[in-house]
Write a structure and sequence with these properties.
The protein has 307 residues and is mainly α. It is 75% helix and 3% strand. The protein has two domains: 49 residues; 219 residues, MetI-like fold (Orthogonal Bundle).
């Protein structure tokens, strides 16, 4: 019996895919396991880091509710008194009652609309004016005296004036929200421009960048961390200003709902309003943090490694 030689076998012409497959080097047997192990280690570190973060966050919230529950159950009176504080069960019952009607949702949406509108105007004006003040000395000399006179005035002190200035309560409440948010945003933007490395500006000028290109490619990315710090602080102050304005002159909103509950001596509704404000503030701050991560992806890396 004779064995045919390879040259005697007619396999036909090779296709391009078969030729590329034969020409491609085969991966080393240990390369794939090592890559898979590296990926698994990265995933393990990721989940371990975020798992600890979620665990700590959940623990702090649970401790707060445990303190609230124990204080109301045993009627603690150690300087602070829990005698009239509603229990978590009573607040939960109140939440189930108010969510069955549209009144609570209408008030929440009214507050969210006001905070978004006032905060958006404060962001546009605060960031834009902050860049101009930080960049140009003459603008700073002209604007800063007025800003320093207006900045110490609390937003709640603007309530009577805003009622006289604006034609409706809605516009006056949005204005008070704007006043509360604009100064932290503006001053943090100015601080970001002042602390920007001047070597970057000189390098941009030496490469032929004009003023608009300096603003867009150097100054704005360089001050974004300070801007988002101002946005986070401004959002907190905006919620404080909004709730105070709604309590005094509002007809809708979470602040108005909370003050109405206080007038009717409905303690569970008061706590429910407070918790609603806290949750809404947490959502807004989380949204700012997420937007900051999307706008500044380079902040996720430290010394060439991901945080």
């Amino acid at each position: 019996m004779t064995v045919p030689s390879p040259s005697s076998l007619d396999m036909g012409p090779l296709t391009s895919a078969e030729a590329q497959l034969m020409a491609a080097p085969s991966p080393a047997p240990a390369a794939l396991p090592r890559a898979r192990q590296k990926r698994l280690r990265q995933l393990s570190r990721h989940w371990r880091r975020h798992g600890v973060t979620l665990l700590l966050a959940a623990s702090s919230i649970c401790l707060l509710f445990a303190f609230w529950y124990l204080g109301t159950k045993y009627q603690l009176e150690a300087y602070i008194r829990f005698k009239n504080v509603p229990t978590p069960a009573a607040v939960l019952q109140q939440a189930l009652e108010v969510t069955s009607s549209s009144k609570f949702l209408v008030n929440v949406l009214s507050s969210v609309r006001r905070i978004l509108l006032g905060f958006a105007i404060a962001t546009l004006l605060g960031v834009g004016l902050g860049l101009m003040i930080g960049k140009y000395q003459r603008v700073r000399e002209f604007c800063m005296p007025v800003i320093e006179v207006l900045r110490p005035i609390p937003a709640i002190a603007w309530v009577p004036m805003s009622i006289m200035l604006w034609p409706s309560n809605e516009a006056s409440i949005v204005f008070i929200t704007f006043v509360g948010a604009v100064f932290p945003i503006l001053l943090n933007t100015v601080h970001g421009v002042h602390t920007l490395d001047r070597v970057l500006l000189n390098a941009g000028r030496s490469l032929g960048a004009n003023e608009l290109q300096l603003f867009w490619f150097i100054i704005l990315p360089g001050v974004l961390p300070s801007v988002f710090t101002g946005l986070a602080v401004g959002m907190g102050v905006a919620w404080v200003s909004l709730i105070a304005a709604e309590m005094i002159s509002g007809q809708f909103g979470v602040g108005y709902l909370t003050w109405e509950a206080y007038s009717l001596v409905n303690y569970p509704a008061i706590v429910l309003g407070m918790l609603t404000i806290g949750v809404l503030g947490l959502v807004c701050s989380g949204a700012i943090h997420m937007v900051g991560q999307l706008v500044m992806p380079w902040r996720a890396f430290v010394n060439g490694e991901r945080r």
